[in-house]
Amino acid sequence: MPPTTRKLAAGPCTGAARPPHPSQAQGEPLDGGRTLVTGSAGHLGEALVRTLREAGRAVVGLDRLASPHTDVVATVSDRAAVRRAMDGVTAVLHTATLHKPHVGTHTRQDFVDTNVTGTLALLEEAVAAGVAAFVFTSTTSAFGRALTPAEDAPAAWITEEVVPRPKNVYGATKVAAEDLCELVARDSGLPVLVLRTSRFFPEADDSELVRSGYDDANAKVNELLYRRVDLSDVVTAHLAALERAPALGFGRYVVSATTPFRAGDLADLHRDAPAVVERLFPGYRDVYDRLGWRMFPRIDRVYVNDRARRELRWEPRYDFAHALRLLAEGRPARSALATAVGAKGYHEVSTGPYTVR
């Protein structure tokens, strides 16, 4: 491990610049050098590789599965493979993970090996390679039990200040990986930003009540109000984070579609969500009625992206209002990038949204 180059203050901060990686032309993460994208065969990894390559950026895709977007077939816990993949790399986008749908098919040790040990290997090898910026893809699932209010309580207002209460090994290992990101960032000076992304997968909902009660597109547009983000907006958030990481040092950010709700709506949202939506979007029922859609009767949490938009200078596009405009024009309510990447599933042989052993 190289000696510490600078200490980072609590929260987003600035400080003396670390010496640039030799392959950096302008001292910025995306200027010169290569970008390593882990999980390049997954939804987000593929989307990032596609976007960077279309922009003329040099990319190294790493995944345990071979794919048109994967250059290095290896697990992130394979430190030797990670070290080789870091050659000439100036920025890392770490999206590889075991997800919530793997809880029923993988052991807790599998989750630790991939989500914790793999993240540590990437962080330490990034420091050794002189990487200029590291972005870790986390999840709003990290908040766990904090997302579910009591029956008679208002909906939860979820910002970065909410303390995570993981309810499964997925959330627990993502929180542990986030803490490793902070530790390595503060000990080494490696700029690391953590993005807690909300839902962006195209697969069917894991809830049988939602799957049986709502058209799939209906459910996903409903979720843009409070707990979903389009894949293209997740990509722009990651690229914005790469650019801002050297100035910010370390930080955690909620990445979700911009909600129209405010804290004063929370009690009504948990009692009668359609009434709140009707007040904010008087014409939404016309679009929904034409499609045979329904709003969820209750909304239990609201993800707030204010800090990400402000500090990352991120401008998400696909919110509920934008989706309504697209639907009114007879167009799909998701981005062309999300459509191009499509659904991948999470297992080689699937028995449903949650494959079990």
Structure description:
There is one protein chain. The chain has a domain at 34-205 and 229-259 and 303-309: NAD(P)-binding Rossmann-like Domain (Rossmann fold), CATH 3.40.50.720. Helix content is 38%, strand content 12%. The protein has helices at residues 43-54, 79-85, 108-128, 169-188, 208-213, 216-223, 231-248, 266-280, 284-291, 306-311, 320-328, 336-341; strands at 34-38, 58-63, 72-73, 89-94, 133-139, 156-158, 192-197, 250-255, 301-303. The protein has a 7-stranded parallel β-sheet, sandwiched between helices. Helix 1 (43-54) crosses helix 7 (231-248) and helix 3 (108-128) runs parallel beside helix 4. Mean pLDDT is 89; it is low at 1-27.
